[in-house]
Structure formats: C-alpha cells, structure tokens
Amino acid sequence: MMEDNDNDDGLVAGEGFFLGQEFASYNEFEDRRLAFQENTYCLFVMRRSERSQNNILKFNKMQFECKQAMSTRPARGKKPHHESYKIGCEARIHVAATTAGRLKVTAFHDVHNHPCNETTYFGYPEVQRMF
Ligand SMILES: [Zn+2]
C-alpha cells in the first residue's frame, strides 16, 4: 500500500513524534524516543508489548506510558469505594508494526499533568541505569 502523507507540520527532526510516523527499525524508534526523553526530561516506560519474530522491528506492539502514569496511587484505606481515584499522567506513545514491516506511531500524547524537569528525570532509576 502506498502512503504519501505530507507531514510538514514544522516538526524538527529529532524532536518528538507524530501520529502515523514510521520507523524502519526498533533501533531507529528507540534512538528517537531516548532523544525525545532527554529533550523533554520526561521518562516513558514500556507498559505493554508484544514481541515480533522480526529481528529488526523486535516488537509487533509497544505501549509506552509516562513514568508518572501510575505513581499517584491513593494511600491505602482512603476512599475505598472510589474507583476512579487514579490521577496518573496520561502521556503515552503507542507503536505498532505495519504489514510493510515498519513501526508506526498509533498514539501519541505528550501533555503531562505534572512538571517534567532535569532533577526528577535524572533521579529515575531507569535513567540512571542508562549511564
Ligand atoms: Zn507525565
């Protein structure tokens, strides 16, 4: 299938993602994701994934969520009947493999409900492991 989308929305290469964006390999996607994290100081962690037999793509599906998505759980014992109490950040990046053998961004939401800063970012154990 041929797709010819003009995505000239003023996005600078190396900055962020956009819906429908495609990557030729897992490494290409990861490079972009890591650069994006370092530019924004927001850590995305993989919450769900589906392995691929394709060694270049590595995954059929990846769902990244902001590190803060799950970190605001209510204290135990408080408001036990209130189920929608989770106030997690909803920033996320979802990627899925296409039939053409590329990784495509299927969801991208980069609005955070909390500040992202250098101090917090480099305090994450996931980030410290990268260095
Ligand atoms: Zn966030």
TrEMBL record:
Residues in FAR1 domain copies: 44-117
Pfam family, one: FAR1
PANTHER family (alphabetical): SWIM-TYPE DOMAIN-CONTAINING PROTEIN (PTHR31569)
Protein name as annotated: Uncharacterized protein LOC117640800
Organism of this sequence: Thrips palmi
